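#structure-requests
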Amino acid sequence: MIRYMLTHRTEVATLVFEHIWLVGISMLLAVAIGVPLGILLTRRPRLSPAVLGSTNIIQTIPSLALFGFLLPAPWLGERADRIAITALTLYALLPIVRNTFVGIRGVDPAVREAAEAMGLTRNQVLFRVELPLAASVVLAGIRTATVISVGIATIAAAIGAGGLGEFIFRGLAMVNNSLILTGAVPAAVLALAADLGLGFAESRWRTPRV
């Protein structure tokens, strides 16, 4: 495996970059959609069963099946990377929406009431009190979603979206364990790096500030 990676380092670097790009764009979209959606659910709790139920159902759909469902979609089906990013974004929504909802709902009501008594508006309470206090829980959801996305992104190679899955599928077709490991090991390293990095950020938020 190491010999193959050294002799094909340019290709390995390209596919690692593609993998990071797919996961990075999908996570940005998932955070941009999931956090506001989680905040909305705290203001409209009646919507939570429908929204959380829908995102939960998406998680149960096998990744290859979801990629297949998106292939005929207008505009998305024209490019494999669009399909991959859309699918990864959908898979990442559940932990982000759920943790945002749970984190904000878990803020002590007395703290919220004290902020309102000081004259803060609803938006000020959200951005100055609720979100800072819920940040570690929200980051935990983003952390989980990122690790999941790194793993699922390897399946994107099945529809030609690139990434480290290219080596895995090529290795499976050729019954070549070195090729499979060339895709699997860097993907695992990326997942561990994301987990450790976001875990550090999460712990920083949990540490009381003096």
